[in-house]
Structure formats: structure tokens, C-alpha cells
Write a structure and sequence with these properties.
This protein is an alpha/beta fold and 210 residues long. It is built from six helices and six strands. Helix 1 packs across helix 2 and helix 3 crosses helix 4. The longest helix is centred in the middle third of the chain and has 17 residues. The two termini are 16 Å apart.
Length: 210
């Protein structure tokens, strides 16, 4: 049975319309592991992987000469000042630039997004609005809209297309993100406490869930 969300206007009042969430867009039984895998893969892709340490070959500033002869001094043998066991020497097996990206199956990504969206709907965290066309680009206007919708201060706003007034009004709010329904991922769906969606954005998201 489809789930219906009452559609509100920017003043927080019901418009009388409903946004139908079809069963084909929801998955409440399986997908928990897919959500974890998707989030781990997303965070791994965000790692820069630029850590780099010098090894003996790249430490040109250190002498490569053998500091003393191999035998006869009574001291431990040494091959050069760049040895990792010396103070100021190279790093043994240190990190080098690399990619931390994790590959994940497209079907798993779709299942994860569907399960994450289902959990938000079941928890009552999805707010449907008829439109997000603001009259100006003031931050206080966006704050007033979020207050009227009782959305709190941690909000993911799903739109079908970016609008200058909305983008400018929301960009100074640290815990508010405006993104297209066609671009949202599992991590962002789970990150924010509330999700605001327009009917047009819901259609974009639905196309990725079926």
C-alpha cells in the first residue's frame, strides 16, 4: 500500500494535496548491509590519499656515503645516513600517494539508497512541499521557511533544479544542503535529520529507486 505525505506550502500549511510514495520506491526488509557498504565506499572515495613520506631513494639531502668501514671499528655496521634506524633518516614502509576508492555494485547502491529513503519515510523525517521558490535570497528567509515547516536546523533539501534564491539563502546555513533528487546519495540521505522534497524532485529520486 502506497504511503501518502501531506504536501505543505512554505508557510507550513497543508495545501490539501498529497505526495504518493509508491511501494516500488520502498524497501523495509533488506538493505541494511547495503547501506553500510555504500556509506563506507562514499567516505573512502572522499579520502585524498596524498600522504607521502621519503624513502632512502628520495632523500637526496642525506649523504649516501658509508659513514665508516664495515668491519674493525667495534660499532654496528651502517650503510648510510639515510637509514631508517638513524635520526633524520628515511621512513621504512611509509605511506605513499594512493587511491582509497572502493568499488561497489550498482545494484547495491540502488538498494542502499532505497533502504535509506524508506527509513526516513517510516521515521516521519520526510517533508513534502509544493514549491521552494523563495521571494529573495536572504538567509533569514530560508530560516523562516525551515521554522514554518518544523524542519529543525539539519535539513537535506531535494529539488529538481537549482534556483539562485534558494541556493544563496541556504548556503550560509552549515547544516542545510540543497541538492538535486537525481544526485543525492545514501550517505547524504542518512546524514541530515530531516529531508524536504518537492514533487518534481521526488520524481527524479523515484527514477533511481525502481
Amino acid at each position: 500500500m502506497a504511503t501518502n505525505l501531506n504536501v505543505k506550502n512554505l508557510q507550513g500549511a497543508d495545501t490539501g494535496a498529497v505526495l504518493e510514495i509508491q511501494d516500488a520506491w520502498l524497501e523495509a526488509v533488506k538493505g541494511e548491509q547495503a547501506v553500510k557498504d555504500s556509506v563506507v565506499a562514499f567516505l573512502a572515495r572522499m579520502r585524498s590519499g596524498t600522504a607521502c613520506t621519503k624513502n632512502r631513494a628520495s632523500m637526496s639531502s642525506r649523504s649516501q656515503a658509508k659513514p665508516w668501514r664495515q668491519k674493525g671499528t667495534g660499532r654496528a655496521r651502517s650503510g648510510g645516513a639515510s637509514s631508517p634506524v638513524w635520526r633524520g633518516g628515511a621512513v621504512a614502509f611509509g605511506p605513499k600517494p594512493r587511491s582509497y576508492a572502493i568499488s561497489i555494485n550498482k545494484k547495491v547502491e540502488k538498494l542502499a539508497l532505497k533502504r535509506a529513503f524508506t527509513d526516513r519515510v517510516n521515521d516521519g523525517d520526510v517533508i513534502a512541499v509544493d514549491s521552494l521558490e523563495l521571494e529573495n535570497n536572504k538567509t533569514k528567509t530560508m530560516v523562516a521557511v525551515l521554522k514554518a515547516l518544523n524542519a529543525g536546523d539539519s535539513v537535506l533539501v531535494l529539488v529538481d533544479d537549482y534556483q539562485d534564491n534558494l541556493d544563496l539563502a541556504a548556503r550560509n546555513l552549515p547544516n542545510v544542503l540543497v541538492i538535486k533528487g537525481s544526485a543525492v546519495n545514501t550517505y547524504l540521505m542518512m546524514l541530515f535529520k530531516k529531508v524536504i522534497v518537492t514533487p518534481a524532485a521526488m520524481q527524479q529520486l523515484a527514477a533511481r529507486l525502481v
